[in-house]
Amino acid sequence: MRTTAHRAPAPPRLLLLDAGGLLVSNQMLVLFHDLARAAGTTVHRVRVHYQRQRSALWSGRIDEASFWRELLHGLGLEADIATWQGRMAQLLGPQLAPNTLTRWSAQVPVWVVSNHRSEWLVPALERHGLAGHLDRLLISDVLGIAKPEAGLYGLVESRAELEPRHLLFVDDRPRNLRPARRRGWRTLRADRHGRWIDTVDRLLTSPASDQPTTPRSPRAARTPAAEAAADAIV
Fold first, then answer.
1. Residue boundaries of the structural domains of the chain
2. What's the CA gap between 33 and 47, in Å, rounded?
3. Which residue spans within 77-142 are E strands per DSSP?
């Protein structure tokens, strides 16, 4: 009886990474606790005020200063925006070692696709030595659209100019991965223990083979790293 040999999938030609929880820490809950202590209120109340502005914040419909003003006013705090901006900067600590990105970016272009504020994310990536290894930053407040809205995935495809099967997208939220999977992208959920890093390593270093194999493979080219900061502010 003949058995069909399964070839390894073609290597991804572009690696797309979420930022919060993958490249930099996602510490919004810590910020909520800090704000609750300062206002003498509950974390739940802080979260409610934040949720009212969340969509406008990530999609860039309000500027960062307006976000802080509205949030602090709603909590009865003085509009000491600079203090809370500084606290946010402290909370965006490094989550991925620069040498890991160096390894990946030597094999494929690496883009960031993130629901974030460019005022927060770009300086954090630069501070932690990550920005120089990224080819492009696609940040929701600049794009005017956020995951998991379908239009964002179409926008990524149009800029990538690649077939969906050549994209490998890593995010820690299943709801952000589902639209990508429906479009034919390869997707990987980032776990909080960091095992996803080993999976990406394996995908980027295992050559495609004619031999039967189970794990998926990859490798690729590289584009100029200088586009990173430009894309964040255009």
1. 14-25+93-233, 28-91
2. 10
3. 110-114, 136-139
Here the tokens at position 118 are 């460019």
If DSSP codes are grouped into helix, strand and coil, which group holds residue 171?
A: strand
CA distance 196 to 180: 17
Average confidence score pLDDT of the chain: 87
Q: Which residues contact 113 (CB under 8 A, 6 or more apart)?
A: 16, 17, 18, 138, 147, 152, 156, 169, 171
pLDDT digits (tens, 9 = 90+) for 92-109: 999 999 999 999 999 999
The CA distances from residue 136 to 59, 196, 202, 204, in Å, are 18, 21, 23, 19
Predicted TM-score (pTM) of the model is: 0.84
Contact 130, 94 (CB under 8 A): yes
Class for the domain spanning 14-25+93-233: alpha beta
Tell which residue, 17, 13, 12, has the closest CA to residue 147: 17
- 228 three-state secondary structure: helix
Residue 175: φ, ψ to 5°: -65, -25
